[in-house]
Recover the amino acids of this structure.
């Protein structure tokens, strides 16, 4: 099952130029890779504040590309300090893997819709 | 969305910043992006954006803290908070910190542009309202001091007429500021950099009036030892103010009419016609229509000059302006004479508000100057007032007035409304009790009295109407058809009838009744406290 809601990408493609769409997607991919790495490091260090803040950022980026499942995963961390503190390294690793899957799915959708031409 | 605006995006996540930039591209706004709260604050101070799109999670300090920082610096840029945190608490805190709106990620272009458009429109409306309020609530206008509704109307008329070349005719009692009005018309006009020439037609000997206006050539008459440039030439390109134009002899009015019609004149004794560009402002304290009807002023000249009339209200019709003006005079004259005066005692202001001021602002000016020259203290007391002003109150009223502070505030901007206006929130001076003996009929006023000279007994403080003419015996008798009812009830009926006639315009009703507007407000407030409250 695709982790991407295609309607989000379609709406974004309608709202911005093709060039801007590619720029937004490219920046989103870079942010996902960077922030999931920060999340993993924060989980390893038990840094609750960084977990909370990074989860907030990932949720926002995930929403740009319609990555609903990824967004739900990190929002679950944002509920409270306790839920953020409960993030384990394996969970953070899974979130990072999901982010990479999102990136691939976005690329596939961009190609299928002709947005990356 | 409204026109081009300066938008500052404060977002440290590159994809979010890129998204905002892309969604707003093509809207025509000037966009800047900052990735920290500190950087945003510095840019706001120098660039002054119209709107900030603000992410709450920033690397140095939070968006909430930035909003508090902006408020502390009295920077009122509109803030739209953008966040991925959908909690009600976040939204509530954002609005409490002063955000005008709140956008939750994700959002599309339509949502963003509508939110931004609403924000910009609100700012534009707020700015327009501020501008209009500023105009309505003016207590200064060129040389005028006054915040009353009557003067606001004068200011608006002057502003409306200033840009045209139409002749202006200023009327009003002596001492109401007709020359000030003429100067204001000139200074508000595109001619402000050109000359303003004022001539008092009543002060110039009739045989010299033509020469004063049109100039003369050497030898034109006995005493014309040199060429002289007249007011018409001197005012070329600017404004010519003819004060007391009602005093102008009829033969001179003919010549003036030709000048007004053609813009050309010939100096006395000269042979060459000259053309000038003049804007005419005239003034008289007579009734111009009556002067025309009685043949003392040419009808054709009148209609040439009486294009835009401006009637200046008498000082007694201007409510609290008398205190505003008196305070300015006190400050000016105290400085000029090196005196310590800072303010008036409450009972002095009450007496000034009560007095009829037949000589208007000029008389007020004389009274204040007299006080400052003859006394030196921090506070002007009743004992320093001329006898006529002191005569208006009983010792008990003076005692009561001194106990009741009378802070004067500008009247409400929207005084004329269909709803009955609420009384002004201020302490009202005590009213002459209905048990007090009826006041003596005021003596007939003749010439303008000077300060210190015996003056007519002033009318009583503002509950009783101030008769314009002496009370005649016939008027004192109660004709059979007049219903005899308690005086308080008659007073109430009269006030309500006046409000009915003026569509609940309190200053106008007060002017009709010849009482202070504050009296009506106070009465209304008192009646509202009983069962007989008047509803609009």
């Amino acid at each position: 099952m695709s982790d991407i809601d295609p309607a989000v990408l379609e709406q974004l493609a309608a709202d911005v130029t093709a060039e801007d769409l590619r720029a937004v997607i490219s920046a989103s991919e870079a942010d996902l890779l960077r922030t999931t790495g920060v999340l993993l490091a924060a989980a390893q260090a038990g840094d609750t504040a960084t977990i909370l803040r990074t989860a907030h950022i990932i949720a926002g980026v995930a929403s740009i590309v319609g990555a609903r499942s990824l967004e739900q995963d990190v929002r679950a961390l944002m509920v409270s300090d306790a839920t953020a503190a409960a993030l384990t390294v394996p969970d953070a690793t899974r979130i990072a893997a999901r982010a990479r899957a999102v990136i691939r799915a976005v690329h596939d959708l961009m190609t299928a819709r002709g947005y990356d031409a | 969305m409204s026109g081009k605006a300066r938008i500052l995006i404060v977002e440290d996540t590159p994809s979010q910043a890129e998204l905002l930039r892309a969604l707003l591209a093509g809207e025509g706004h000037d966009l800047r992006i900052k990735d920290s709260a500190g950087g945003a604050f510095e840019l706001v101070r120098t660039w002054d954006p119209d709107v900030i799109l603000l992410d709450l999670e920033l690397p140095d300090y939070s968006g909430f803290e930035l909003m508090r920082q902006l408020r502390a610096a009295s920077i009122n840029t509109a803030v739209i908070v953008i966040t991925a945190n959908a909690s009600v608490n976040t939204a509530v805190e954002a609005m409490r910190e002063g955000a005008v709106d709140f956008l939750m990620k994700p959002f599309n272009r339509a949502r963003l542009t509508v939110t931004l458009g609403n924000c910009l429109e609100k700012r534009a409306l707020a700015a327009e309202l501020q501008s209009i309020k500023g105009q309505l609530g003016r207590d200064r206008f060129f040389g005028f001091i006054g915040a009353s509704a009557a003067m606001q109307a004068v200011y608006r008329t002057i502003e409306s007429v200033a840009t045209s070349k139409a002749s202006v005719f200023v009327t009003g009692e002596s001492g109401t500021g007709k020359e000030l009005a003429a100067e204001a018309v000139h200074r508000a006009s595109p001619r402000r950099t050109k000359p303003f020439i004022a001539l008092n037609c009543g002060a110039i000997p009739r045989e010299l009036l033509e020469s004063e206006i049109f100039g003369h050539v050497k030898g034109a008459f006995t005493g014309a030892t040199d060429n002289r440039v007249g007011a018409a030439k001197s005012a070329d390109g600017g404004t010519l103010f003819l004060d007391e134009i009602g005093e102008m002899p009829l033969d001179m009015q003919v010549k003036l009419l030709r000048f007004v019609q053609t813009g050309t004149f010939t100096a006395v004794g000269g042979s060459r016609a000259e053309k000038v560009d003049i804007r005419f402002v005239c003034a008289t304290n007579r009734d111009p229509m009556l002067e025309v009807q009685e043949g003392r002023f040419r009808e054709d000249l009148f209609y040439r000059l009486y294009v835009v009339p401006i009637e200046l209200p008498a000082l007694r019709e201007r409510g609290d302006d008398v205190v505003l003006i008196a305070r300015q005079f006190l400050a000016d004259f105290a400085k000029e004479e090196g005196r310590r005066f800072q303010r008036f005692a409450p009972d002095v202001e009450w007496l000034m508000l009560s007095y009829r001021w037949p000589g208007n602002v000029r008389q007020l000016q004389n009274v204040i100057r007299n006080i400052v020259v003859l006394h030196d203290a921090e506070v002007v007391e009743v004992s320093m007032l001329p006898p006529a002003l002191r005569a208006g109150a009983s010792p008990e009223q003076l005692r009561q007035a001194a106990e009741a502070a009378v802070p004067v505030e500008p009247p409400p901007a929207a005084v004329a409304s269909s709803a009955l206006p609420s009384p002004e929130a201020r302490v009202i001076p005590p009213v002459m009790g209905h048990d007090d003996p009826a006041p003596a009929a005021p003596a007939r006023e003749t010439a303008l009295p000077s300060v210190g000279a015996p003056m007519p007994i002033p009318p009583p403080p503002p509950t009783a109407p101030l008769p314009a003419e002496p009370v005649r015996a016939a008027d004192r008798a109660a004709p059979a058809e007049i219903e005899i009812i308690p005086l308080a009830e008659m007073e109430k009926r009269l006030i309500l009838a006046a409000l009915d006639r003026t569509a609940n315009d309190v200053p106008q009703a007060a002017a009709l009744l010849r009482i202070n507007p504050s009296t009506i407000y106070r009465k209304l407030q008192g009646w509202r406290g009983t069962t007989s409250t008047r509803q609009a």
